[in-house]
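Bench notes, afternoon.
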Amino acid sequence: MTATAPAFTGRRRQRRVAEAHLGWWMIAPVLIVLAANSIFPLVYAVFVSFHNFQLLIPVPHRFVGFANYARIFRDALFWSSLEVTLWFIAGVVFLQFPAGFGLALLLHRLRRRQDLLVTLFLVPTIIAPSVAAFQWAQLYNYQFGPLNYILGLFHLGRPTWTADPQLALPALVFVDFWEWTPFMTLLLFAGLRSLPQNIVDAARVDGSTACQVAWRIYLPLLRPVIGIALVLRILMSVKLFDIIYVLTAGGPGTVTENLAYFTYIEGFRYFNLGYACALAILQLIAVSLLAKLLIRMTRRPGVAHVIPAGGAA
């Protein structure tokens, strides 16, 4: 009995090792495709960012170290494009999230037609951003756009929405708000439906109002969902390109040129690939740190932190 126990244990260990090796062999094709599509381009972009890589100049690509990264912080266009990007991020945090949370609460309170409304909310989100931008280009048209027609009926003037330096950026922020607020709404609505109903019922028995339930129950318990929603939307705002390319092309001047469009200009108009890769790598690092910070800040608290000992009211 004692002689066979080590042999049996050894066979089990060998079987586990064989199963582990089989598992690695099974996922090897996926890992190879992932490395070819993601890891290699990232490593090559880092390599290019340390070189003077200009396609329009037929000279050897020499190593310049951190010169491209140092140039970024001396470039006035970088700071202006960063400011535009921050305006889009502010639109996510201060416009899309409050509006999405309010609409999610309204959907959650409805007892009928929820499926129909959810389907309608999906319509702006499933439209390709370039198609949505073409639609809004017609709405913003100076001569034939319906917005200017309605304003003309009330003698309020006919603004040049995407050609006015004062209106171009707010017009783009509003297009982004129209397209992606439903996405925020649906994420938060799904989070609301997953919350335990007994906590909400207990708060209402204690006399909590709807606002108190939303502030003290829903928001704390939704913190993980809010974190994911904000991270996704901030990532999408940082890499926003389609509506800018279609509606303003970064203009007038550089008023609506965000970091993604600035990187595109440097890489595919001026063919300064070393500088463009440095911009892209810097954005990747900044967004990764921001996403990690947001996820850490929005960890779900315990129930004891949600409902104090004296009740939710």
